[in-house]
Amino acid sequence: MTTTWRLRFELSDSPGALARVTVRLAAADCNVLALHVMPVPGGVLDEIVVRAGEGVLPADLVDAVRCEGGKRVRITLADMRDLVDAPTAVLRAARMALADPEQTADALRQVLAADSVTPGEAADGQVQVGEWVVRRGWAPFTQVELTRAQALLDLVEAPAPSMRAMLSDDGVALVLRPGSAVDEDAVAGLHSRCSMRTMFNRYHSGMRTVPRRWLHRLLEPPRGTTVLGQCGDQVVALGQLIHTGTPDCAEVSLLVEDAWQRRGVGAALLGALAADARAAGFTELVAWCLPSETALVRTAARAGLATTTRREDGLLRVSIKPRGRAATTPAMDDVVEKTR
């Protein structure tokens, strides 16, 4: 009877080192089914999934790897999920957790090949990932794995923007709601009604219309959220909150069509994005404006949000604190410029 094993070991990052290990395993009647290489300080960490022939013991596999220079060799039984490459495994696990948040622990366990994942605070010798304690006896976790697991949690736990109602300064009712792919035509219409000045302030270029291929990324950014301002059947404003890669910082941008500027829409939209940022744990919002434009600072002030500014790379960097005092009736002065 054949058995499938998962081996993990450190190996010098030199030509032919891994090839020699696989040749040695083949000589031991093993078929290599999957391979994954992770960089670690001083070399690489190799993980392979092998199907061992009848009578081949785990100790035989460990000895084969050690004979070719493998260090800190760990072994455990494998299943079919271990034959999937790591990015695919993470995407599948994320999809499972997004469909049912109660399966988040199981998704983490699959991604990390962990023995257990439980809520709580990690004790000495245990590993904390978000609000979860993860344990694995057969091999220590690598920083690559833990970063991958945290990225999964960031995706699963990111709060979706909720639907909000608002009144413009002149009493017109609007709805602020999440954007989606079905809004492409409405967002294309929004851009077509904006003046050249509004478009230039938003995109920092002289284009008259937004390319169709941009619409999907505007509505469903891969590392953020989009909120639309809608009146009747028309989308009249668009705001985005994009994670910059810095843990506590996100970029923010707004587009408000000309007829709806100076009517409180921009301030309400910025306030909604700030609320989403607070819920996601961000402590700073950043926007990049043309040096001559101060509309964003005024709009943030009317939304009750404190700002600081500085010149950087020929643009005005506006830093916004997402926590602020309660705003009075907001008013929009101008369209707020997009991030770079």
TrEMBL record:
Superkingdom field: Bacteria
Keywords, in A-Z order: Acyltransferase, Transferase
Pfam families registered for this protein in UniProt: Acetyltransf_1
Residue ranges of domain N-acetyltransferase in the record: 174-324
Protein name: N-acetyltransferase domain-containing protein
Biological source species: Lentzea pudingi
